[in-house]
Amino acid sequence: MLRRMMNLFSPIGFLLIVWSTIGCGGGKPAAPPPNKVIPAAVPVANLAPPSNNARPAPAPRPVTSNAHQAAAPTRPPLPPGTNPRSVFDLDATPQMEVGAQEATDGNQFVVESGKPGVDSSRMVVSATDSTPKATPRIGFNLPTGFVPLPEYGYSEDGLPLRIRCTKTNSVLALVPGGVATVGTTSGPAECQPELSVHIDTFYMELFETTVEQFEVHRQEMKEKKKPVPVFTNPTAPPGTPVLGVQWGAAQVYARWAGMELPTEAEFEKAARGPNSLRTPWGDGRAIWPNNRTPETLTPVGSYSGDLSPYGIYDLAGNAREWCNDNYSDHAHKDAIGPAGQVPHNWPGPRRTSNMNLRVVKGNGPDWSAWHRQGREIGKSQPDVGFRCVLRITPQEAKAGG
Question: Tell me, what's the pLDDT at 118?
Fold first, then answer.
């Protein structure tokens, strides 16, 4: 396989230095620190391809180890407080060569992730799957206001893998139903114990609701003489997650768009994937192209590594996100039935000692998907945004089956 890959790439050299700072723990809800806005990371896909007329780079000349050390660039200092053991320093000289070749099913490869034991510190390369995509299910229809995107294909049971909400222009990913793991057996007390829940199929927006999308909603509310919701970052770039929307206003937006806020169980299912990973990218440490903390705020989808197995972005970082559930420190414990039965579509506790608290997910100190907080619904939370889900009713899911 390596020889095959060596025949696919032009001579390159690269130097990659990545800093990753990871904290531990959880604890009770605390006052959020101010957000830090940094420019969006540049996706590789947006870089201009090399010209076909460009002259090939000359082959590297052999150098001795001393000469190589002398030519090595000066490494920049580590950020304050960085643990040197958390730093990855990868230095490689050009050693791959290819000639021009047309891409075919036989010489294309993909990088796999989102599997147990495969995380940000490992890369698995395999040949692309050339099998035909599944076909749409006969008799299945999406609710009004949603259209399938056939170019993304269909699931094995004929459901579109991607759909679009015509009102918000947002794209949603299919999250297949089944048993999902929620919580942990060894993390913070409010995240224990780990439990299994059965969740029906649903769709979740690929990105958090943005400032631009929320402003469209505000303008429509203004034109209809209805209460206009407020938020705390109106001057942020249009593609930035909207922040400071009260829980009730987020719920109004979701229903205006024909959707709902996700439950805590749905959020974890979407983040952890079918194998119940610790984070969207696997069970290992996070590797970001620049320094990222739970307080870092960027335009949605800026970090390609923060991508769940279902293709959903920013479930670990960026804005924290409202869920529909009431918050309780012992919600997981109370969810387990007397005989240990698995809850179906667990909505969280029906009543709690403080009904003004709702669950907020995301941005745990070590990015683990099980972290949770309780925030007051009547306050404008300056670090909390939201995204929406579309639930497929049993009748829709079984249509044509």
Answer: 54
pLDDT at 340: 75
Taking alpha carbons only, the member of 318, 296, 297 closest to residue 207 is: 318
CA pair distance 27, 30, nearest whole angstrom: 8
Question: Which is it for strands 296-297 and 36-37: parallel, antiparallel or unpaired?
Answer: parallel
Hey, what are 73's tokens? 């660039």
Distance CA 204, CA 267 (A): 9
- SS3 of the chain: the string is CHHHHHCCCCCCCEEEEEECCCCCCCCCCCCCCCCEECCCCCCHHHCCCCCCCCCCCCCCCCCCHHHHHHHCCCCCCCCCCCCHHHEEEEEECCCCCCCCCCCCCCCCEEEECCECCECCCCCEEEECCCCCCCCCCCCCCCCCCEEECHHHCECCCCCECEEEECCCCCEEEEECCEEEEECCCCCCHHHCCCEEEEECCEEEECCCCEHHHHHHHHHHHHHCCCCCCCCCCCCCCCCCECCCCCHHHHHHHHHHCCCECCCHHHHHHHHHCCCCCCECCECCCCCCCCCCCCCEECCCCCCCCCECCCCCECCCCCCEEEEEEECCCCHHHHHCCCCCCCCECCCCCCCCCCCCEEEEECCCCCCCCCCEEEEECCCCCCCEECCCEEECCHHHHHCCC
For residue 60, how many other CB atoms are within 10 A of its CB?
11
- The list of the chain residues with pLDDT below 50 reads 1-33, 36, 38-72, 90-94, 96-98, 100, 103, 105, 130-132, 399-401
Tokens representing 68?
């190589």
Tokens matching residue 380:
């404008």
The string of pLDDT tens digits covering residues 251-298 is 999 999 999 999 999 999 999 999 999 999 999 999 899 999 999 999
Asked if 157 contacts 401 with a C-beta cutoff of 8 angstroms, the reply is yes
Confidence at residue 65, expressed as pLDDT on a 0 to 100 scale: 41
Q: What is the pLDDT of residue 26?
A: 41
pLDDT at residue 45, as a whole number:
37
